Model the fold of this input.
Amino acid sequence: MNISINGEQRTLEDKLSLQQLISILGLENKRLAIEVNQEIVPRSEHASYTLKQDDKVEIVQAIGGG
Amino acid sequence: MTTETAASINDNPLIIAGKTYQSRLLVGTGKYKDNEETRQAIETSGAEIITIAVRRTNIGQNPDEPNLLDILPPDQYTLLPNTAGCYTTEDAVRTCRLARELLDGHSLVKLEVLGDEKTLFPDITATLEAAEILVKDGFDVMVYTSDDPLIAKRLEDIGCAAVMPLAAPIGSGLGIRNPYNILTIVENANVPIIVDAGVGTASDAAIAMELGCDGILMNTAIAAAQNPPLMASAMKKAIEGGREAFLAGRMPRKRFASASSPIEGLFF
Done:
């Protein structure tokens, strides 16, 4: 399936969970927040959330700012 | 550590959204050379409330890069996620909700909705709208606004936890451009008034505190100094000095001189 991650198109295997995606990206144990199609998916639901074709995933973190 | 001066006895601590703070200096974490300089400056400032931004994680680039939250642990500081860079109500609200998820339900946010890239002045209509949505959604909103006393009051009425008028444009370092408006805002307020943006150097911070502001939020004034940790120390002292001067009550201004030594007992 094709999904968009932070604005970039990626081709990944079907029925991936959000938790699996995080681990593929090497972002385990990072302090992150994730939206799929502009809806927040709480951390407690990452493992049970299944991604589908054309999902738009946004992964954000804290950075320096005023 | 604290000496029992009249000033310290009479001062009330800064309370924002039910939490008490000893420091009246709030600092941003942007524009520093690196994480180490950020850490040093923030430690020296003595600030307890630290603003952060929420941005996309770099995918596939150096996943071991140190995270800002590693050097500024959330158990040591009160993190204040901001909506900097947002030009619409929707983006600002979305950013706050992401920040709440990012920080495990943390409800304190800094709302700013910008109206224009050149001035970075707030879009007041969008700010009011976003503030209403966020307050209803359970956020404790510290809101960046113009130095308009009527708008400051309306933001307070909406239920914002603190109102934060600008002293001058963000990052300009021009100092307190409209002290009388800031004074009016302070006099009308029942929530903390924090000057946010425009302070350039220590004297600007002291002036804002002498006007009775409850605190100052700054970033560039420290980060863009030649020696950021030293400026952080200067700001800490200026804010403490300005606060004490406000509490002490300054002497009235007089046009002509008044001798400090007694006239009585002159022997010539």
Notes: The interface with chain A takes residues 28-32, 38, 51-57, 59-60, 63, 67-69, 79, 81-82, 84, 94, 97-99, 101-103, 170-171, 197, 219-220 of chain B (CB under 8 Å). The mean pLDDT of chain B is 93. The first strand of chain B starts at residue 14 and ends at 16. Residues 202 and 234 of chain B are 6 Å apart (CA to CA).
